[in-house]
Structure formats: C-alpha cells, structure tokens
Specification:
alpha/beta; nucleus; metal-binding; 14 strands; three-stranded antiparallel sheet; Copine 2; 11 helices
C-alpha cells in the first residue's frame, strides 16, 4: 500500500529529497516493527519510470537515524542481483534523520490544564445611537437584550467553561467618562480600573447594563488600545514557557475602525503571542475593514510591511445570525479558535503541561 511518494529530482545522480511528515498510523498502523518497503525509480516523462532498486526497513530502525548519525541503506535491484555475479547495489540511500513528534489536539491542551482567558471589549461610540432610543444598538429591549448582549452571551457562555475562576475583564472604548468626561479607549465597564473583572457572563451583562446610563457615547472607534491591553497580559504569560494560558479578546463593534494602521500593527504583534481576537460586527454598517483584519484570504501586514505570524482574527457580522439559534453564532465565532490555540503552542514547541512524553 502506497503511503508516501517523494517529489522528483531531475538532472542529477545524487538527489537530495525534501524532508516530509507522514502520520504514523498511515505509515505503519502504529506498528514500529512493521516492514516498510522503499522503492526508487528513474523518472521518465512518458510515465514509464525505470526501477532502480529497493530496500526494506521499519520505523524503529529509521528512528536510529539522527542528524549526526545518518543511516545508509543499499538500494537493491533483485533482477540484477540474480543475473550479475559481482552485483553489489544500485546505489545507497541515506536517511539523515527520522523523528516521531506527537501531534496534540485542542482537547489535549485543555485537559492538560490550559485556561482560556476571556476579555470583552465593547464599542460605546456615538454611531451606536442613544441607548434610550429604541433604534440604538445599545437599547435594551423589553426582553432584556440587544445585539451586544446576544453576542456576549453566545461567545461567553461557551468560553466560560474553559476558565476555572470565570472572572472576566470587561472593557469599553469610545466613551466619555465621569467625572471629567474625558474620552477613554480602554475603561473598565464596572468603573473599577484596578479590578475590571466580572463574575461569569452574567456579571459582564450586569456591568454592561449598569454602566450605560453613566457614560456619554463619543468616539473615535479605536481598537488598538484594547488589543494592546490584552497583548500585555498574553506577553507576561509567555514568560512561564508552558501551555497554561491562552487569551481571547471579543470585540463587539458597530462600525468602521478609526485607527486602522495602529490596529493592524497591534494585531501583527499579538499574532506572536498566545492570543486570538474575535470581532462581532453589530448593526448594518460596512464591515470591509474587519474582513481585511481577518486574514483568511491573505496574510495581514502592518503598515511597516511586517507580516502576521499567523491568522488570529475571526470576524463575524451579527446580522447574518439575527434569526438563527445562538449556537449557530457561537459555532461561527469559535470555529477557528481550537486550531489557533494548537497552532500557537505547536509553533512554540510547548506540549500540554500534564501530557505523557511521546
């Protein structure tokens, strides 16, 4: 059964093939002693490739190859071996290195004790409309909800199960605050800057409803202060060099970003950290800039040209889910998160903290 085919190396009698990765289960069904046949052919354009030779090995034998001690296999053509008395081999195949790496899943990291640290950032800019006016995106209807609260509930109710203390910082931006009515782009919505934590998603919803009458909606819509705020905590977590904390920032906004250059730069820097950003767009504004930050179609770059290390932004327009079950919104919003967590820790060579060695 064919398990791997290398690329073709042309115009040389001394080819060097690229390293490759193959799942152990595909290679040998997890049986380290199972015979593996390696066959070498001389490539022909017409598809009639000429057989050069072959050898047999096993994963346990191949794993003896290390960077400093390569393994050599004689490439044997049985036909030639039978016909020619002096036949030695048809060449030597050298295996430079073979390693088994364990691939961990999102669940492995969670079961290994990784906590998802959840922060909410809420847009209180004037474009949302007066919260006392039923046309405002911040107007809480007789059912006790609005699009901001729906987004907080949909995402928070799932993420809170991955955080043991369920204490979440909730921040606002784009509003004037009492008593001096200065504009702030990162304020605690419970008005306690030294302890912006709310107890569970209920606590976030209560703090949000309570702060609405005490602030003045203003502007502009600056994202970078809140992105940098969470990035500072994520950067501190990297000093532990363990897979114990991963930060998630949920930004709920009604419109166009005013500080796009600074936000792009902040996201590119955050892409090197254990951090993901979820943006939920409420209302009917043009969210083209948000799609740009969500690097699904192309790599995000900062204004200096620096590329994001990985795609950490997931953007979802709430209007597409207005009439759907809240689980549908949660699924769309959190779709890329498990992969982002695994990708980060894998890139940093960090196994789950309570994992067995491979």
């Amino acid at each position: 059964m064919l398990v791997h085919r290398t690329e073709v190396i042309k115009y040389t009698l001394d080819p060097v093939w690229k390293p490759f990765t193959v799942p152990l289960v595909s290679l040998c069904d997890g049986d380290m002693e199972k015979p593996i046949q390696v066959m070498c052919y001389d490539y022909d354009n017409d598809g009639g490739h000429d057989f050069i030779g072959e050898f047999q090995t096993s994963v346990s034998q191949m794993c003896e190859a290390r960077d400093s001690v390569p393994l050599e296999f004689e490439c044997i053509n049985p036909k030639k071996q039978r016909k020619k008395k002096n036949y030695k081999n048809s060449g030597i195949i050298i295996l430079r290195s073979c390693k088994i790496n364990r691939d961990y899943s999102f669940l492995d990291y969670i079961l290994g004790g990784c906590q998802l640290m959840f922060t909410v950032g809420i847009d209180f800019t004037a474009s949302n409309g007066n919260p006392l006016d039923p046309s405002s995106l911040h107007y809480i209807n007789p059912m006790g909800t609005n699009e901001y609260l729906s987004a907080i509930w949909a995402v928070g109710q799932i993420i809170q199960d991955y955080d043991s203390d369920k204490m979440f910082p909730a921040l606002g931006f784009g509003a004037q605050l009492p008593p001096d009515w200065k504009v702030s782009h990162e304020f605690a919505i419970n008005f306690n800057p030294t302890n912006p934590f709310c107890s569970g998603v209920d606590g976030i919803a209560q703090a949000y409803s309570a702060c609405l009458p005490h602030i003045r909606f203003y502007g502009p819509t600056n994202f970078s202060p809140i992105v940098n705020h969470v990035a500072r905590f994520a950067a501190q977590a990297t000093q532990q060099r363990t897979a114990t904390q991963y930060f998630i920032l949920l930004i709920i906004t009604d419109g166009v970003i005013s500080d796009m250059e600074e936000t792009r730069h902040a996201v590119v820097q955050a892409s090197k950290l254990p951090m993901s950003i979820i943006i939920v767009g409420v209302g009917n504004a043009d969210f083209a800039a948000m799609e740009f930050l969500d690097g699904d179609s192309r790599t995000l770059r900062s204004h200096t040209g620096e590329e994001a290390a990985r795609d950490i932004v997931q953007f979802v327009p709430f209007r597409e889910f207005r009439n759907a079950a809240k689980e549908t919104l949660a699924k769309a919003v959190l779709a890329e998160l498990p992969q982002q967590v695994v990708q980060y820790f894998k890139h940093k060579n960090l196994p789950p903290t309570n994992s067995e060695p491979a």
